Amino acid sequence: MSDRSASVTRDTNETQIRLELSIDGTGSSEIATGVGFFDHMLTHIAKHGMLDLKVRAKGDLEVDAHHVVEDVGIVLGRAIAQAVGDKAGIVRYGWALCPMDEALVGVALDLSGRSYLNFDLKLGPAQVGEFDTELALEFFRAVAANAAMTLHVWQQYGRNAHHIIEAAFKAFGRALDEATRIDPRRAGDLPSTKGTL
């Protein structure tokens, strides 16, 4: 099996992002975006997705965290797309349902080559630390678009915004781990009747 890893950079007038990803990792992470809660959430993707993830981000946090969060999503999506390569032999689909105290959030995804996001978290306008809760939508939209994945994120229960968002990031990591696994029964075949993804 080839090395399923990627290194992606993004430099704009608003942000400078450096990201390294290994799909077949151990759950280790080194995250520094300048947004504490967001760092914590990215660590959950790595830990629960069994990915190795390094992220260094600098941006215009004096404005707000929007550009950093969205651009990290863009770069992570691109890294996922690069790391899975031609997708030969992968499971393709993944889903997880994760509880976090009173919150229960589900994620289902398809590494389909078609980007789509259905996002149904009931967060309202609020902040967790320096993280505007509406940035969860911006992050997952950027990931889905740049990884060319179909992504559904939904809330079954929950009141506490921290718990709801954390359950979503954990579930995303677990679903991504499942979807990117190599299925030995496929013997390198693409998981598509079209013959392409």
Describe this structure in words.
With 197 residues, the protein is of the alpha+beta class. It has one domain (5-186): 2-Layer Sandwich (Ribosomal Protein S5, domain 2). 34% of the residues lie in helices and 30% in strands. It contains 4 helices and 10 strands. The protein has helices at 36-49, 66-84, 135-147, 161-180, and strands spanning 5-11, 15-22, 29-32, 52-59, 93-100, 103-110, 116-120, 127-128, 131-132, 150-157. Helix 1 runs parallel beside helix 4 and helix 2 (66-84) runs parallel beside helix 3. It starts with a strand and ends in a 17-residue tail after the last helix.
Beta content: 25-35%
- CATH class category name: Alpha Beta
**Helix count from the secondary structure assignment:** 4
**From the coordinates shown, what is the CATH architecture?**
2-Layer Sandwich
Helix content: 25-40%
Compute the average pLDDT: 96
Q: Tell me the series of helices and strands, N- to C-terminal.
A: EEEHEHEEEEEHEH
Question: What would the keywords be for this entry?
Answer:
4-stranded mixed beta sheet, 197 residues, alpha+beta, single chain, 10 strands, Ribosomal Protein S5, domain 2
Question: In summary, what is this structure?
Answer:
The protein has 197 residues and is α+β, with helices and mostly antiparallel strands. Helices cover 34% and strands 30% of the residues.
